[in-house]
Design a protein that fits this description.
The complex is a heterodimer of chains A (277) and B (288). Chain A is built from 14 helices and no strands. With 277 residues, chain A is mainly alpha-helical. Chain A has a domain of 157 residues: MetI-like fold. In chain A, helix 3 crosses helix 7, helix 3 crosses helix 10 and helix 8 runs antiparallel to helix 9. Chain A is globular and about 75 Å long. Chain B has a single domain, classed as MetI-like fold. Classes of the chains: A mainly alpha (277), B mainly alpha (288). The interface between A and B is large, with 102 and 103 residues.
Chain lengths: 277, 288
């Protein structure tokens, strides 16, 4: 069929455009000193193969530390989002109480507030709470995590999940003498594991790639997360594109592994619109 | 349900605390700061009513930056509404290798914007790959990031490139809900590819098209990292958008009041877009 060929040609072209910038970084990262990286025509396959660029950046840049910092920040952000979103979602889904409507719309309102417009006061408050890296790694990490510890998106996602659970299950538990927290923890939470997984994955991706906030609060290089560290490569190696490319590739490997191993969550088409913009 | 009367508040308290400290308080503080002038002293600002706003409306850079933000919007949004829809329609016809296509096209969404911006900076270099093709076409090399006429569009291209896969997945989810029988009926009528999608697909997923329009507009208003990594807003402010200018004024010039006045403008614009978005297209998602 003619139509399918047309589709394949377009899709192959767009796929190439999507990966080419990375391939070109990868290619540059393997090119040795004797090879002109500005050669015309550009050479995708290095002529003078070397791992020297990787060895060079690895010696000068503490990628392991950036990676660990990113893991701590993303891990902490995910854990807090799962707990706080679920806790807040439960009464919104199931309980009648005074001020329910106000709570509901207040949370909804935070979706409309862009972080970029309030980042200055958020920074001033974080400073006031001493949650910056000058006070040590603990406060530094808290300062990176807490402003993103819960999102309205997560609360509404969990609320929808709780709404889809039949009420009879909780009623049975209450008759058995469970209190509200036990119902929440022992009955409801195990039933929303798939939604928790979705929330965890998308929160992780968002936190892992976050650049604006860490670049505002971080002052110590030992606290850098991967995006801040990668941006810093430009300063460290000025125009040594072989090293910058090698560093960028190194910093990208973890998230590519994460993406490929969990790809069904991203491309199944069921979790549309789940990443924060 | 029989519950302790304070139970709901206990459940809401932790999230409420975080949202209060890091959303509501800063929201009101942004408005408050916009009435202060920090230029005389960073420790004891003066209360100046609307002076920052007056200064803002008289600042040619503010208007330039706001204009460029809307150029960003008017270039990026149409492309991000149309191209991903087209790609989603192509993939949705149960094409072979669709998983591979989806993974490859989604890849830019996953990878850090900082790495993406560095990769493009390298492609845009004066003697870089893109200029090689420009010269092949018989033109002079272009200073993609160094020529004020090109810097903004160069940065917009990165934003578009990084967004296509994201919106494509949103469209693919929507396309699953279009009844197959409608396509079969159109096939029996002998409708062409274009006609079939104009009469069946587009009307069916109109709400999603509208949704993609508003969310891509909101994210276009908020771009920062691409600009920070590639151009720092230059040359001559030519690639600066409002978030970058807010950042620069606050954290580099320590002009907190002026920065906050611009932040209020950003708040108003984004909240208007978001309101339309939630009220018109995402009511179901939030259970309204």
């Amino acid at each position: 069929m003619g139509g399918k060929w047309f589709a394949h040609i377009i899709l192959i072209f767009v796929s190439l455009l999507s990966v080419f910038p990375f391939l070109w970084l990868l290619s540059t990262s393997f090119k040795g000193i004797s090879e002109n990286i500005f050669a015309y025509p550009p050479q995708l396959f290095p002529v003078d193969w070397t791992l020297g660029n990787y060895a060079g950046v690895w010696r000068r840049v503490d990628f392991i530390r950036y990676f660990v910092n990113s893991m701590v920040v993303a891990g902490g952000t995910v854990a807090l989002n799962l707990i706080l979103s679920s806790l807040a979602a439960y009464p919104l889904a199931r309980m009648e109480f005074k001020g329910r409507k106000i709570a509901f719309f207040a949370i909804l309102a935070t979706i409309m507030i862009p972080f970029q417009a309030i980042m200055l006061p958020v920074y001033l408050i974080t400073l006031k709470l001493n949650l910056v890296d000058n006070f040590g790694a603990g406060p530094g990490f808290l300062g990176l995590i807490l402003p993103f510890a819960v999102s309205a998106f997560g609360i509404f996602l969990m609320r929808q999940a709780f709404l889809s659970i039949p009420r009879e299950l909780e009623e049975a538990a209450i008759i058995d003498g469970c209190n509200a927290f036990q119902v929440f923890w022992q009955v409801l939470m195990p039933m929303v594991k798939p939604t928790l997984a979705v929330l965890a994955i998308f929160t992780f991706i968002g936190s892992w790639g976050e650049f604006l906030w860490p670049s505002i609060v971080l002052t110590q290089e030992s606290m850098y997360t991967l995006p801040v560290g990668v941006n810093n490569l430009q300063g460290t190696f000025s125009s040594n594109w072989r090293f910058i490319a090698a560093g960028s590739v190194l910093a990208t490997i973890p998230i590519i592994i994460f993406f490929l191993s969990l790809q069904r969550y991203f491309i199944s088409g069921e979790n549309d619109g789940a990443i924060k913009g | 349900m029989r519950m302790k009367s304070y139970a709901p508040y206990l459940f809401l308290a932790p999230a409420g605390l975080v949202l209060t400290v890091f959303f509501f308080l800063p929201f009101f503080q942004t408005v408050g700061l916009s009435f202060l002038d920090y230029t005389r002293s960073i420790y004891s600002p003066d209360f100046v009513w609307f002076k920052n706003y007056a200064q803002m409306f008289a600042d040619p850079v503010f208007w330039q930056v706001l204009g460029q933000t809307f150029v960003y919007l008017f270039v990026a949004v149409p492309v991000l509404v149309i191209v991903p829809l087209f790609l989603a329609v192509l993939i949705n016809q149960k094409i072979r290798g669709q998983t591979v296509y989806k993974i490859l096209i989604y890849l830019p969404v996953i990878v850090s914007i900082v790495v993406a911006a560095i990769a493009f900076k390298w492609l845009y270099a004066q003697a870089g790959v893109i200029n090689y093709f420009v010269q092949l076409a018989g033109l002079n090399p272009i200073g993609w990031l160094t020529d004020p006429r090109w810097s903004l569009i160069s940065v917009i291209i990165v934003t578009i490139w990084k967004g296509i896969g994201y919106y494509m997945m949103i469209y693919l989810a929507a396309l699953m809900s279009v009844p197959r029988e409608l396509y079969e009926a159109a096939d029996i009528d002998g409708a062409s590819f274009l006609r079939k999608h104009l009469t069946v697909t587009i009307p069916h997923i109109m709400p999603t098209i509208a949704l993609v329009t508003t969310i891509s507009a909101i994210s276009a208003m908020k771009v920062f990292a691409e600009i920070y990594v590639m151009t720092k807003g230059g040359p001559l402010n030519s690639s600066k958008t409002i978030v970058y200018y807010i950042y620069e004024r606050a954290f580099e010039n320590l002009d907190l009041g002026y920065s906050s006045a611009m932040a209020v403008v950003l708040l108003v614009i984004v909240m208007a877009f978001s309101f339309v978005n939630i009220y018109c297209f995402e009511r179901k998602k939030y259970g309204l």
